[in-house]
Design brief:
- It is a single chain.
- By secondary structure, the chain is of the alpha+beta class.
- Helices cover 52% and strands 14% of the residues.
- It folds into 2 domains: 60 residues; 119 residues, no CATH class.
- It has 6 helices and 4 strands, in the order αααβββαβαα.
Length: 199
């Protein structure tokens, strides 16, 4: 039996895309089957069961929309994932993030947290890195966590920056335990907040 991938794990988007399409197919097949059986039994489509079947398709149609949205974003390139894993050391990292806002979504392949520094890499050609970094920064600030957020679009620059963060101690950040997250470190809370604003 396959285990469920957590949000932020490598391969999460691919697995969630497959799951969304399977769920959509199942949710649509039940009302269609009811409609066909009713048609066969009554010899006509004009009966109350047809209305029930049509209404029963609505949740499935909603799931199709979710599946289409999930299909827009590819999983991270495996070679880049391997390079990141080799460089990151013990730094906490989230993979395959789609940060959402009311206006647009920002695809960030990888994002790492070290103290007050948050650095990410995006392979999306249409991503405005400064806009994405500002969105993430403002969302963290709303939860009272000030971070220096940088999103890079060049692989080598990201890996070099990640290596520097992994090889040095993070800048000490004054931190009082958050009542909302008892027992959590500051980095763990920041990672949790990043997961919360990602699809």
């Amino acid at each position: 039996m396959r285990t469920k991938l957590e949000k932020g794990a490598y391969g999460y988007l691919k697995r969630s895309r497959l799951y969304a399409w399977k769920k959509a197919g199942l949710m649509l097949s039940v009302p269609v089957l009811i409609f066909l059986i009713s048609w066969f039994i009554h010899g006509t489509r004009e009966n109350v069961i047809t209305v029930v079947a049509v209404v029963g398709c609505l949740p499935g149609c909603n799931q199709v929309v979710r599946a289409i949205l999930a299909s827009r974003y590819p999983s991270m390139d495996r070679e880049m994932w391997e390079k990141t894993e080799a460089v990151r050391g013990t730094l906490p990292v989230l993979y395959e993030n789609v940060f959402t806002s009311y206006e647009k979504n920002y695809y960030v392949d990888c994002i790492a947290v070290s103290g007050r520094e948050t650095v990410g890499y995006s392979s999306a050609s249409d991503l405005d890195a400064r806009e994405a970094a500002e969105h993430i920064r403002s969302q963290l600030r709303k939860s009272s966590y000030k971070q220096n957020v940088t999103i890079l679009k060049e692989e080598n620059a990201f890996l070099e920056r990640l290596g520097r963060l992994a090889g040095s101690d993070p800048e000490p950040v004054p931190f009082k335990e958050d009542d909302r997250y008892p027992g959590w470190t500051r980095d763990e809370i920041v990672l949790h907040l990043l997961q919360a604003i990602s699809l």
